[in-house]
Amino acid sequence: MKVFAAELIGTLTLVLFGCGSAVLAGDQVGQLGIAFAFGLAIVAMAYGIGHISGCHVNPAVSFGAFVAGRMDGKTMLTYWLAQFIGATIGAGILLLIASGQNGYDVAINGLGQNGWGTGYLGEYSLMAAIIFEVVATFLFLIVILGSTNLAAPTPMAGLSIGLTLTAIHIVGIQVTGVSVNPARSFGPALFVGGHAMSQLWLFLLAPLVGAGLAGMKARFGLLEKDPS
Asked: Which residue ranges does UniProt annotate as crossing the membrane (predicted)?
């Protein structure tokens, strides 16, 4: 239950702070500020709950750990349940706060949902969105699995992971709004509905593909230092 609660709270925080920066403060902080909000949320939770659950707060991270042989399937499903619930609660809290502003309409202003194509940020194509989400998640998981290796300087893991997520957002916000996290995409899309829900499949599947590739790399020892 401690692990479940930690993952729920961590994912809730990521969605509330990350998506909240876009919805509540996007005009003030810009895309760079939004990128740092996502990254700093991860850094904060890494040191807040990392000792309890490892601070996955992302089904793709848990899947990558499973493929790498660091987690069994039953535990992964427990993490997934906590993460999706946490993301949904986080998006719900954000909606309640945003609705307190006169003129806010979730169908128009959204909740920081992911997407692609005509009318969405940089209007990138479906293929561009797929490539970005798979590659970005792969690289994100390489950093996570490498940083949390027993041979790595683990006290710095939270910072390296958070800064990597920041860099990913700086590069990719205009492409998809950046998912690399199925739960982060699910929560906002559930409340926004419509187009956001119809495009959700990409943000559920592409991060898992990228995470699975990184997990395989770790499973075969390609993230391990050769013995001297």
From this structure: 35-57, 77-98, 124-145, 157-180, 200-220
